[in-house]
Amino acid sequence: MSGNLEIRRAYASDMEVLRALSIQTFSETFSADNTKENMERYLSEAFNEEALLREIRQPDTLFFLAFENALPVGYLKLRVDAPHDGLKPVPAMELERIYVLKTHQQKHIGAGLLAYSQELALSFGCVALWLGVWEHNLKARGFYESKGFANFGSHVFMLGTDPQTDLLMVKYLSE
């Protein structure tokens, strides 16, 4: 990783930074492949302050912010006790969101956040980390595959009014 990377838990007091990162990184990742209307609808529903506060206050949900040289450059959202029916019946954590600013994507910050989430999952007694990734996000799919994740299913993700297919991927951490 370049620079000085710090990862720390995010709280309600971090709402302004978390909301700005959420909107910017999601827009950078998906705007080119989706309609303006669907993007605006999703961003306003998923990343308004009330929705994010509701998420951050859930006892089984953890947000973490990544800072490079004290500047916010990415974040994680993890669901702690989140087994999935398509997985072996083992304790599992869901990596629900992992995003890094486009300007920082070649600095291995995403790899640092992913490694941090794996360590955290193990510390919670989880033996699997799973996630959903849009089937057309080839860059992210390749990243997860290179880190040992494998497909185990799919589900529908609604982006505005557009039903999209997310591939489900898992990495077993202690096999």
Quick summary of this structure?
This protein has helices at 15-30, 36-46, 49-56, 109-123, 138-146, and strands at residues 5-10, 61-68, 71-79, 92-100, 128-134, 150-159, 162-172. With 175 residues, it is of the alpha+beta class. It has one domain (5-172): 3-Layer(aba) Sandwich (Aminopeptidase).
Explain the overall architecture:
- There is one protein chain.
- The protein has 175 residues and is α+β, with helices and mostly antiparallel strands.
- The protein has one domain (5-172): Gcn5-related N-acetyltransferase (GNAT) (Aminopeptidase, 3-Layer(aba) Sandwich).
- It has five helices and seven strands.
- The chain has a seven-stranded mixed sheet, sandwiched between helices.
- The longest helix is centred in the first third of the chain and has 16 residues, at 15-30.
- It is globular.
- The chain starts with a strand and ends with a strand.
Blueprint of the fold:
Elements: E1 5-10, H1 15-30, H2 36-46, H3 49-56, E2 61-68, E3 71-79, E4 92-100, H4 109-123, E5 128-134, H5 138-146, E6 150-159, E7 162-172
Parallel strand pairs: 4-5
Antiparallel strand pairs: 1-2, 2-3, 3-4, 5-7, 6-7
